[in-house]
Amino acid sequence: MNLQTINDIASELFDALNQQKIIQPLTDRYPEIDINDAYQISRKFLSLRESGGEKVVGKKIGVTSSVVQEMLGVDQPDFGFLTDTMKVQNRSSFSIKDSLIQPRAEAEIAFILKEDLLGPGISKEDVIAATDKILPCFEIVDSRIENWNIKIQDTVADNASCGIFVLGEGACSPDKFSMEELSVEVIKNGEFLSEGKGSAVQGHPAQA
Can you list the domains of the chain with their CATH numbers? Predict the structure, then answer.
């Protein structure tokens, strides 16, 4: 995929984000797109957001469960960028209608690092050693791709389908308990909706 096409797709995604509109799947329109093209689009998409004043505050690791990987036909996670405008304060109000397109809620585990991690070859132990604390995190993913009709290239290009995120309370050290057994629940107005365990994330959250 040539540079002009990569820039054009990134601009299309940027416009879709700002205008709250959906676009047709990239993999339908550009069957030649590969994962490297998708990451180049993602980085250009990010640069457009940064030019508008957004600042990167973290990274998102997605596609971490075997179920989602099988659905997308891949054997590894993907990643995207978290910016300051995506962060919503805990216990605050937020208008999804005014900001998102096709939102879906997910419970996550956030790693707050005290040291940078530079790969390749980063191990689970390296991640734990570099982590200051972990927090429960509530993510609302969003896709600019119509009807979430995505393949891995679509979601990577679309910044790993990032929407917004909220960091919770109750920070703790990652080496004080078994993260594989850590359980995260989604509860809406007192009603239990779903539950996930740390072991569902590549066997261990720090492994992703």
Answer: 3-207 (3.90.850.10)
